[in-house]
Design goal:
Elements lengths: L1 E2 L5 H11 L3 E6 L21 H4 L6 E2 L8 H12 L2 E8 L2 E4 L8 H11 L17
Antiparallel strand pairs: 1-3, 2-4, 4-5
């Protein structure tokens, strides 16, 4: 992932989503506590440049370890770049903040999101077709 001052929130969103297609990042004006969600009114527009959120941003390119926990990733983004982010996971047609599962790895969160979007073609069971003694 490449963090640059002139990058927009959408640029970072796209980089993250290309690696974890069933997860997404949202950026916020304020930090959130462990196991707490971020408020939607604090969400930053995807057109916003990172330098507007974090004027003293240090530009850096780094590799995201898929085994890293969501909470560690969010904390690293805060510590290294002063960016307040929240990871969301796909759940059917919804996006959920991963607050109660922040201890899961990014890989596990992405897998859970992927499984939630799968369609299963299972024949219905005829409950009238059982022998009763």
């Amino acid at each position: 992932m490449k963090i640059q001052k002139h990058s927009t929130v959408q640029n970072i969103f796209d980089q993250f989503n290309s690696r974890f297609p069933h997860l997404k990042l949202e950026f916020y004006k304020k930090d959130h506590q462990n196991n707490e969600g971020s408020k939607s009114e604090d969400m930053v527009s995807h057109q916003t440049h990172l330098s507007q959120i974090s004027p003293d941003l240090t530009e850096k390119e780094f590799y995201i370890d898929s085994e890293q926990s969501v909470s560690d990733f969010e904390q690293m983004m805060k510590n290294e770049f002063n960016l307040n982010i929240q990871v969301f996971r796909k759940s059917n047609d919804l996006w959920l903040q991963t607050t109660s599962t922040d201890h899961w790895s990014l890989k596990k969160q992405n897998g859970k999101g992927q499984r939630s979007t799968l369609e299963y073609n299972i024949d219905p069971i005829d409950i009238t077709d059982f022998d009763v003694s």
